[in-house]
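Risk mitigation, structural track. In case the binding assays with D-xylitol-5-phosphate fail to produce interpretable data, a predicted complex structure has been prepared as a fallback.
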Amino acid sequence: MDKKIKIGASLICANFAHLEKDIRELEKAGVDYIHFDIMDGHFVPNFCLNLDILRLVKTLTDLPVDVHLMIDNPDVFIPVFAKEELHALSFQQEAEYHIQRQLSYIREQGILSGLAVNPSTPLNVLDYLITDIDVFLIMTVNPGFAGQKIVPATIKKVEHMRNLLEKAGIEAEIQVDGNVSFENIPQLVSAGATMLVGGTSSVFKKGMTITDSVQKIRDLLA
Ligand code: DX5
Ligand code: ZN
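Fallback model:
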């Protein structure tokens, strides 16, 4: 695992009036990957991107894309999204019965397997899955909306997750998603996060250019 702290851009926060322009600026600014949220209006009370937009994005950029499924029936859609040459594919622990089966399937497709846990979900649900997961997605807000405030207890949760992995001798990515702001990034990284999802509170911060925002994050990480 590359230990570099990776900066991702949460695409639901981009300006869809000029998506290609935003993607060009993300590339120029040097983000490491695109975070692509899928919502079904059921697991979360909201809708956002879809498969067609994913395919469009894949024609516009070679940036690695990680898909985050916030849907009720991941088993139905994991095979669908796994065909789209993804860097990583995550689904919510709370939404799936056969988690180990889905994680193995994702890996078999040559994609990093990711599992997301809501702020209220304890880490012991991962006890027998710790070697099946490449990306531990710790939701730092309750999923479904950009622009929320971080759930403070999740910062400690990231630290606990990193300790669990170190005790098990496992090197894996810890991704944080939700209000990953300039203020919260130093704490989240020192707690053990390695993949940042930058949305309205950093990469797409109002009143700043994407280039300046990403540079500000790089300066914080330096
Ligand atoms: C929320 C999404 C996040 C969101 C982050 O459910 O999964 O990716 O876009 O946006 P901010 O940074 O505004 O919280
Ligand atoms: Zn997300």
